[in-house]
Structure formats: structure tokens, C-alpha cells
Structure prediction request, 459 residues.
Amino acid sequence: MTSGYSDSLGGQQPISTITGPDIRSEPRKSHSAPARRTYGESTTSSSYFSSRSSSGNNNGSGTRSGGWRKFGESVFGHAPYIGTLIGEMKSPSKWTIVVNIFYSILHSVSATTFVSNPLSGLVILVTMLFCDRRAALLGLVATLAGIASFWPLGLPVQLLVGGSVTFNCFLLGSLLPLAGEETHSWQGIEFLIPLAAVLGIFVVYLWSGFNGILARVDIPVLSAPTNLLALLLVYSGYFLQFSHGPELPSLTHDDDNRIHNKSEDTFQSDCNCSISNQLWSGVVLSQGVIFQVPVAQSYIIYLSVFIYSPILFCQEVLGGVIGTIIGMGLDVNGACSADVCNGVWGYNSLLTAAALGGYFVRFNFHSFLLSIIGAIVSGFMCAVLKKSGVPILGIPFMLSTWILLPLAKMPSSNESSKLRCGDLQRVVVFSTPELNSFCKNKFYSRVKYTQQERSTLHI
Prediction:
């Protein structure tokens, strides 16, 4: 879900990396050219949870305040304190490499839902390991293969920090167990592991190709590599041919739910229940269906989003509600009720609302309305794809975001050309929606710093 760098606005400009965070540090006070970032360095110097301690305060109160600040910056937002600790590790060292790779993997996992927090990534990964070890393992294999393919392609190592490329690897790898009839067992894993590794490499190559085209028009790649390769797998006959058409299990029909440790009663949530229960189940599982986890674990994933950004959490809940309501409204004969309860109608709208309502566009009233429109468009695109028999995957989210994102304008660091607060304004250097929306001076100084950094990235 990323785009990379374009030559717009008079210079090479980093633009929307799906869910990758700001891979640059804060603006420096000196006027010299900024130094190249080291892998694993903090993505932002402050989170929305941090506050400055009084200078020179060495008493117990100051110590406690500093401790709470470190705790906040280790848990909330981008968890910048963790990135700082990793960036300060002695290099080169084999343990440094291992820690940096693990740090990148955690960001790749969390970036699937627009979160850039290693703690959130760890929570999601552990949740998947409890629910479906095969999906988590194959996702990790594909992610490691994708990371290894960065060097032959000559891609900047900075892109690994936010997982803005390799989240596609994890997402596609985690879908592979859905191909078999028995996802409960480890039978056939010796075939799926090398397949996941090959697909992880192909994802990075495809991302590089998509980025070379879409960056010219300032459009993020998003999940295009995953969607393309998944469609190729479906129509090449790798996935089983289901009675309802060429659609991925757990993403389309209730008969095809093959997620480990989910009984029919737990996951499908009694699709003949009341409207309120259908809505609640659909919204909750709109998040869980992305990571193939049931209801209880979906709450945990929502919590991991909340500790990163409350605004993003609210936007994702809103998108899930809109998509689920559209599915319920189009459920004329009751044939889609299982899909409504399983979150199939909600997850694309959830991702679209997050993308347009705070991640790629600065959060304000206008971007809030844009996210609602995007979620509605994404929901109706799901209906069109289901009617035509095409796998849904993340196609509605990808297309609706591509269509509506150009409505937002790219920002400028020039004081005279700043847009009004109500204007739709693109996010260039990624941080939490709270920082980009409510810390205007920091936002514009980061834009200026990003433009100055052109000479050091050499991309």
C-alpha cells in the first residue's frame, strides 16, 4: 500500500507509503544537509503522548516525568523510543542485523492496517500465531524473502523501516494456507514454504514496477502487488475451485471459511440474528478477516490500532460500519448475511476510510467527509465484484483510494502557499494523524526538511 518517491513539486518527494511511517528524522536546527538515517532509527522524535520535562530538573518528580515519557514513547504512536534504542545499537553486529530485521517484520505486520508501531505489530503477530500458526509462519517467510530481495534491486534500506513494501509480502504469504482443504494440519507445508518465499520476492519486484509508474502521478501502490499475485494464483488453479466461483475463502462466502481454530458458531456469529448483532459482528470482524482471526482476537487488533492512533481507530470503525451497513442493505434474499457477519463487506471500507481520513490525507472535517465517501464507494465496489464473480481481495479499497486521493493537494513548506485548515491536504512525511493534524508548525517544517533531504537519499 505504498508509493515511494516522485519528481513532483520541484524535487524528489517522498509520498504516500501505505502504511509506512515517516522514514526520516525531525528537521535539524542547523542549515547543513541532513545526515543519512541509519536503519532502525526513530521514525519521529515525539509522539502525541509525549511532553517536555522542565530543563535542569533533577528531582524525583522530573525523574518520574521522564520515566512516564519514555513509557509513552515506547508504547503509543510510532513508539519512537524503541526506534531510538535500536538506532543507537553498535554497528556492525550480527545481533544488530537480527534486531533490525525483526523490527522491520513487526512494522510489516502492523502496516497491513495502516499502523506503524512495533508493539502493535508484535501483538498482531502473536494473535495470529495463536489462531493460525501456518498463516503466520508463511507470512513471515514471505516477509523475510521480500527483505532479502531489497539488496539485488538496490532499493533504499529506509523503506524497510516502515514495512511499507514488505507488508504486501506478509499479507500474501498469510493467504496461502487458505488454498488447502485442511488448514488445521501441517500437511503440504514443505511445498508452501518455498512458494511463500518466491512470492515474497515477486511482491517486491512488482512493487518496484508499480511504484515507478504510480509515483509519477503521486499515487501510492497500496496492495496492488498482493492483489495481482493473488488473482494469478486463483485463476491459475492453485486455489481450490469453490462451488460459488473463483473466490478466496474467508474473503467471500461462508462455506469457504477455512481459518484455524474457528468453529462455525464462533466465526459466523449466527447470521440469522438481529440486525444490531449482525452489524456488531460485521464491524468487529472487518478487522479480523484481514488477519484471519475470530471475534475475540479482532478486539485485540482494534486495541493495537488504538494505541497507535485514536483517530485512525475511529476511522477504521467508521469504515467497518459503513461497509457492513451497505452489505446489510444489499442483502435482499438473505444470501449475503454470512458475509455481512464475517466482515467481508466491511474490511475494504475500513481500509479506505483509514487511508483517506488521516493516513494519506491530513485529518480535518473535509477529509472526514472524503473518508465516508471512499468507504461508500468501496462498499459498492464489493457488490459489483461479488456479482461478477471476481475475488474481492483488497481491490475495492485499492481502486477507491486511487480514484479519490488525487482530490487532496500536495503541501508546500512555503508560508505564503500554505493551504487553509479545511482544505484536503496530502501527507508527505508520515506520522500519526494526531501529529499531522494538530501540530501544524511541525507538519510544515517536516515538509520543508523532506524537500531538503533529496540530495541525501539518492533514490
Notes: The chain has 21 helices and two strands. The mean pLDDT is 70. Strands lie at 5-6, 13-14.
